[in-house]
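User: We ran a pulldown and think these components assemble together. Before we commit to crystallization trials, I'd like a predicted model of the whole complex to look at. Sequences follow.
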Amino acid sequence: MGETTINVNYLARVEGRGALNISISKDGRVEDLQFRIYEPPRFFESFLIGRKYYEIMELASRICGICPVAHQITALRAIENALGIEPSQQTKDLRKLMAISAHIQSNVLSMYFLSLPDLMGYESVIEMAKDHLELVKRGLKLKKLGNDITDIVGGRAVHPVNAVVNGFTALPRHDKMQSIRKRLVEAKQDAYNTVDLFSKLEIPDFNRNCEHMAISDKKEYAINHGRFKSTEGLDIDEMNYRDYIIEKQVFYSTALHSQVKNRGSFMVGPLPRVNINNGQLSSDARDAMKRSGVKFPNYNPFVSHLARAIELIHNLDESIEIIDRIPLKEESRDFLCKAGFGAAITEAPRGSLYHSYEIDNNGVIRKADLVPPTAHNAYNIEKDMNEFIKTILNLPKDEMILKCEMLIRAYDPCISCSTH
Amino acid sequence: MTKKPKIAIFKFTGCAGCQLEILHLEEIFLDLLELFDISYWVMVKRKNDEKEWDISLVEGGISTPEEIEEIKQIRKKTKLLVAFGDCAIGGCIPSIRNWIPQMETEVQVYPDTSLIHSMKVSGIGEYVKVDTILKGCPPHRETIVEFLKSILLKIKPRLKHHPVCVECKFRDNACLITSKKMACMGPVTSAGCGAICPSLGRECEGCFGPMSNPNSSALASIFRDIGLSDIDIQRKFRKYSGMSPEFKKEAGY
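Assistant: Here's a predicted model for the assembly, 673 residues in total across the polymer chains.
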């Protein structure tokens, strides 16, 4: 066996601009490995300084077109933590419905449009549609459901408009919520079929015991609130995040690499969520998880697809629950502005997302610190790749490259986010 | 059947929200595949045709020397070049940093700035000729469909040049400026969204960029009358289109 190099200069079917460069010596040693994110930085942490606290959810939304909702809600919660605001239960519920709808949209996009073509042997969903039209239609229908819920609750699917500090500028209409409810019930079979599909498709048999992290809450499947927990015993409050998680710059990437202080890389995303919080999944989602025949906790990053599918069932169930209990009554959004520091961690579709802000007495942002899921994952993707590549060295080069790309796509990286 | 128009979709400095809107055309997405040959779209396809394209939809602004070269190459290979969304038109939200010295911006994020090749962000029109612009952060799906239909019909798309105020009138919205003294950007902002924000009780923030020939200074003086400070007015204009000729005076450029 000769020396092998892998150069993917523009990774396809992921959001944003990244590359993968690996070189392996003749004796199968990984000599160099870079998940090279060359997305141009936009410097949100710089230009948010000097803006008013009430603009931040709108500006931070523009970090990402796929997960704007997660950035909005995280920004709002961090700002509210700084100002000492506790939003009403209705606001929390509506935000959760909005966050879940974004998970449905984004995770269906990842499963059906970005990764399924790999698992079914097509270059894209466009090619796949020629042979598997019904499958693509199912994906489009599920994705549309997620988008329509975001639209009804947030006013617009991409960069929603009416979630503001301490509430919403307008509440969704009752009749629209009921029509959504009906579609959520109907979508359940599609969600079961999705779990079925992803539990049967062949994925690489690759396990790496790394630290998995997600926010966690005893009472509910944590998306917008929870303590930041890991499979290695980390259990922290969001306000203390920076005491435990650090970032390092690497010369080949515009995304900083996160790691646990004095420990190393870690993984965030649907798989860590399901591993850590499966006790809080809806009973139907738990049943589907058992029926899938795949064991959890699971440390095969390729099982992330199945984790997304299991979450999809839960997301439909919890959306229905929220619609059924929400009173939709007008509430006051009044509060006082004061100086302070606030941090928040939420679960974006791709995993844990951290925002923190320092606000002065005039409501002007003085410091911003943002860590998106893919910045959390970048270092861990390299660690996974370093092990995974050794297991596929006997494959023809084309297949080897495809498998490497598939590992990256299993994380569903959002590269614009990671650089921000 | 005549040959399908060949489309390419590119991403520069931006958030992918604009190109995602094409995937979000869920109900007609499969029809689009029948009518157009989407030959380059890295976010969706693994095999991309880099030859020539009839239409290039370019999302994102230009903020690195490499991007300048790339957009020039794309221009050479494209018949109809579209600035797709506010970032490609004028840098959008990331252009807020153009008022901060570059070095100050970089040290805020990176310990070693020698590794970063970044410049002030601008629209693609700064470097190449642009044939059409589709406004919005993101552009409205109806606008995208209108544009794609016009390509097939070989006619000029009917893009909106009037302000958001007209759409508010169509929806019978009470004016937020006169009735609630809210600092609404609607009077200077291009229509196309259907007045989403004012219809939901929120002031327009200007995410569709300037309408044609707006009176920005008059709106700034109204903002002053309803109690905004000079710096608050500057923030209003220095957001989605601060660098535009229409807004740059009020944005403090």
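The first helix of chain B runs from residue 17 to 23. That may be worth checking against your pulldown data before setting up trials.

User: Thanks, that helps.
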